[in-house]
Amino acid sequence: AAEAMAAEAGVLELPFLPDEQLTRHMRLRFQSLQQKNMRPQDGEKLLPPNEHIYRVDFIQQHKLRFLRWDMQLERPGKVTVTGTSQHWTPDLTHLMNRQLLEPVGIFWKKPGATEVECNGADAQEFGERIAELAQIRKVMYFVFTFTGGLEPAQLKGSIIFKA
Q: What is the pLDDT of residues 129-138, one digit of tens each?
């Protein structure tokens, strides 16, 4: 019911969904290179253990205006959110560094704090960029980097648009 009310008010909240399958694929690539003692391709982005792939499914693509991020962290730590320019159904196992978007969103919670802070101007610009990219994409993929002891299970995040 809350969702229906929010939709009526012209606000669209889209959750960041962990994409376990893509994360697993990219981890396997990382491991196989290590096992075979091979180098990654030039400019290839490998996924270390503290990075996870998330996605946003745009149920609406047009006339979105970025309002704000809603990032909830259950404990102190930091998460860096990097967008990717991968189109359609990507095989992110060969994600290239040049496909990582600037700026990034950085969200953190200090010990003892209740509020999550962020790099305001960059997070704002990044949010506006996502609203633009939504016009040409049904899905967008993100790399979430967890530091300071934060784990994916301790994060609940979404991006909120005026629709």
A: 999 999 988 9
CA nearest to 52, candidates 24, 11, 14, 83: 24
Is 35 inside any structural domain? Answer: yes
What is the model's pTM? Answer: 0.90
Please give the Cα distance from 123 to 80 (Å, whole number): 10
Total domains in the chain come to 1
d(CA 32, CA 106): 30
The count of other CB atoms within 10 Å of the CB of residue 36 is 8
**Contact between residue 123 and residue 82 where contact means Cβ atoms under 8 Å apart:** no
CATH number at residue 83: 2.60.120.390
**Bond from prior residue into 103 cis (ω within 30 degrees of 0):** yes
The pair of structure tokens assigned to 86 is: 């991968």
- Residue 6 in any domain: the answer is no
